[in-house]
Specification:
five-stranded antiparallel beta sheet; 9 strands
């Protein structure tokens, strides 16, 4: 399945640490998810065994990565090394949307995602 459309994909909460509603594409070595967060939504501090790159698509949010913090907005990219504590909060009045790229690891994607048949994406 080489072609996808975010608007046609199932949207669910993928992990307990976050309030995000997301769609995910799972490749052989990497995943890509598009996450949408309403005002006040957050990702509580957590870690995982994979490296992560977050590309901000719309809105703004306050991020904490390790001991560094910053408010990010459209065009910003957040790099989170494997095992690094991180979290964020949408402190704005608008949706915060981002793309998250992660390599496959021992804890990503979560087993609940792998077991959820509704998350298996259909090609365009």
């Amino acid at each position: 399945m080489p072609f996808y459309n975010w608007n046609e994909m199932t949207k669910k909460n993928l992990v307990a640490a976050t309030d995000s509603v997301a769609s995910i594409i799972i490749g052989e070595n990497i995943t890509l998810n598009r996450s949408v967060n309403q005002p006040g939504d957050e990702a509580r501090p957590h870690t995982h065994g994979c490296e992560q790159l977050i590309n901000v698509v719309s809105g703004t949010a306050w991020f904490l990565v390790g001991d560094e913090e910053k408010t990010v907005t459209v065009g910003d990219i957040v790099h989170i090394p494997a095992g690094m504590s991180h979290g964020f909060k949408n402190k704005s009045d608008e949706e915060f949307v981002y793309l998250s790229f992660k390599n496959i690891s021992e804890d990503w994607p979560p087993q609940k995602v792998l077991n959820d048949k509704s998350l298996r994406q259909k090609a365009i």
